[in-house]
């Protein structure tokens, strides 16, 4: 049953950016060499492909715009009532949690389960602390925290919207391969992918829960509910979309591996636009979960 589910959704993925351990890393290296050779030896074919790709992407963008054309939220966007004090506190708390707490652990000698538990603990600590401050200062309500009613329109805006966005993600993946090939920077596997492939038993299920359920909700609260809405209030929608997506990508960046930045940056733009359209934590979290779930399905199939 597990293999049937994976094969059913695999065709939607094409080539994800994650690759891990020897088999997936070999696939990633093979893809990198293919695009590098195409860039160097057949630039005309690559140019024609890019032109056709732009037409296809324009069509998917039009479909996505039509999908989001109708009302996806009840009422106007609820501006956050928190200000610079909450912003500074949120950034300080985030840095404290993600720099100090992991810093006391010897990561070379811990099992995979500990990594997931630390991630869950860090995000729970940050979310609880930030919500506690908003509650004490009486500057939050269910709407500006993204807890709007989850309607049918919201569901389709998230799920169908994500699948219409997938070609853009794939294009960002290919573009990232070309950039890495041009500058001679072979992409590397992400550590989280290596952990997932190495995990067994309880550790695998905990990793599945963390990546598909917990991480989307926590990250959408941090980057869309908190960070994007604050930037939206300060610098406007277009700049807030770009800035929040850039920070979202840099948080996922690993030293020496710039390959993942561009695809995640494009994903961040989509999630910010989805949140702008719905102002729903559940919608952004669902789309994010679809992305992580498809990647997990691919990793399971490659085992």
Please give a quick description of this structure.
The protein has 303 residues and is mostly helical.
Low-confidence stretches: 1-22
Tell me the major beta sheet.
none
Report the strand count.
Answer: 0
As a whole number of angstroms, the C-alpha radius of gyration is 20 Å
Query: What string gives the helices and strands in order?
Result: HHHHHHHHHHH
Continuous helix count: 11
Indicate the proportion of strand residues.
under 5%
How does the overall form come out from the CA principal axes? globular
What are its keywords?
single chain, 303 residues, mainly alpha, 76% helix, 0% strand, globular
Report on the structure:
The structure is a single chain. 76% of the residues lie in helices and 0% in strands. It has 303 residues and is an all-alpha fold. It has one domain.
Give the helix/strand layout.
Layout (H helix, E strand, L loop, with lengths): L1 H9 L10 H21 L1 H25 L16 H20 L8 H26 L14 H32 L7 H8 L3 H34 L1 H16 L8 H18 L2 H22 L1
Helix pairs in contact: 1-11, 2-6, 3-6, 4-5, 5-8, 6-10, 6-11, 8-9, 8-11, 9-10, 10-11
């Amino acid at each position: 049953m597990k293999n049937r589910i994976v094969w059913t959704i695999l065709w939607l993925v094409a080539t994800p950016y994650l690759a891990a351990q020897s088999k997936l890393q070999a696939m990633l290296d093979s893809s990198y060499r293919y695009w590098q050779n195409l860039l160097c030896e057949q630039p005309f074919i690559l140019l024609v492909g890019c032109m056709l790709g732009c037409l296809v992407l324009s069509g998917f963008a039009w479909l996505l715009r039509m999908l989001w054309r109708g009302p996806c939220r009840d009422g106007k966007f609820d501006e956050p009532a928190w200000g610079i004090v909450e912003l500074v506190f949120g950034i300080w708390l985030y840095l404290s949690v993600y720099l100090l707490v992991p810093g006391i652990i010897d990561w070379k000698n811990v099992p995979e389960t500990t990594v997931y538990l630390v991630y869950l603990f860090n995000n729970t600590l940050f979310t609880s602390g930030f919500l506690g401050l908003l509650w004490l200062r009486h500057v939050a309500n269910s709407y500006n925290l993204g807890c709007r009613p989850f309607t049918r329109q919201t569901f389709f805006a998230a799920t169908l919207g994500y699948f219409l966005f997938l070609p853009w993600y794939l294009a960002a993946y290919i573009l990232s391969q070309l950039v890495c090939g041009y500058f001679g920077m072979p992409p590397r596997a992400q550590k989280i992918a290596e952990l997932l492939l190495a995990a067994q038993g309880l550790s695998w299920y905990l990793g599945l829960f963390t990546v598909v359920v917990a991480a989307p909700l926590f990250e959408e609260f941090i980057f869309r509910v908190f960070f994007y809405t604050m930037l939206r209030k300060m610098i406007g929608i277009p700049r807030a979309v770009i800035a929040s997506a850039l920070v979202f990508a840099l948080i996922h960046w690993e030293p020496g591996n710039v390959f993942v930045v561009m695809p995640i940056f494009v994903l961040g733009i989509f999630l910010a636009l989805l949140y702008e359209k719905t102002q729903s934590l559940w919608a952004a979290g669902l789309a994010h979960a679809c992305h992580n779930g498809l990647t997990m399905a691919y990793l399971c199939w490659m085992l």
